[in-house]
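Hi P.,

Sorry for the delay on this. The queue was packed all week, but I finally got your sequence through. Input first:
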Amino acid sequence: MAKENVNELVDKLTLFDDDLMSRVFDNNIEATELMLRIILGRNINVISVIGQDEIKSHEVGGRNITLDVHAIDVNGDEIDIEVQGNSAGAHIRRARYHSSMVDSKMLDEGQEFRQLKDSYIIFIYKHDKFRKGLPVYHIDRYIRETEELFDDGSHIIYVNGNYKGNDEIGQLMNDFRQTDSDKIHYAALAKGVKHFKDTEKGREQMCEAVEKYAKEYAKEYAKEYAKEYAKEYAVKEKMISVKNLMENMKLTVDQALNALGIQGDERKTIINQLQNRN
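Then the structure:
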């Protein structure tokens, strides 16, 4: 990718882009405490914060996760903060999976379950996930029959990134949308964004990250294109075979498809293509 294109992409980055967000908050206790105080509505004393922290699945071939921001507070509570720009990445079952993965690493052999600390999975979603206009949505477990809180220490929170209220969380989300560090209200966030966009060392790191991402995306796109091309080629080959059977053996479409054992989506595709050609 050309250098000018990389620089242009870096200029457009906001805190809703995990490459920038995870770097701004990495080892940045001040900024992390600020963000958590606003989202959780109480003071949080953070003792550790890591950007892009990977948690590996215990199962062979299981899915690993990479936390955008992984914080631990003074009580030992684990906090995962994710930024997400699209609906697929903010699926509610992803929150469940992240919660289970974070919990799975908390206890050592021999520890009792009551020693399990609280966990917080926070999705800062660029849009309004539940479309109710609220700034924050707290997901907790309840006993259905009594409507009492089932206080197991598991907390899932969605932040409405599109919220524009005249309050702290509205200001925070406004800061997340800014591309220019000089327009960011909260100093701790402005300082971090400025470092990665406006200093030589920080910008070099961001350019490398963006270029790496672009290359990885290109590889994945190439793989997907190859799969689709192979699938399309296979369908064309089978369609030729179907047409040959129909012409040479005087079979109907269904008879030819059955003879070749073609079922499911491929069958529908071939039928549609043959009908469109007639």
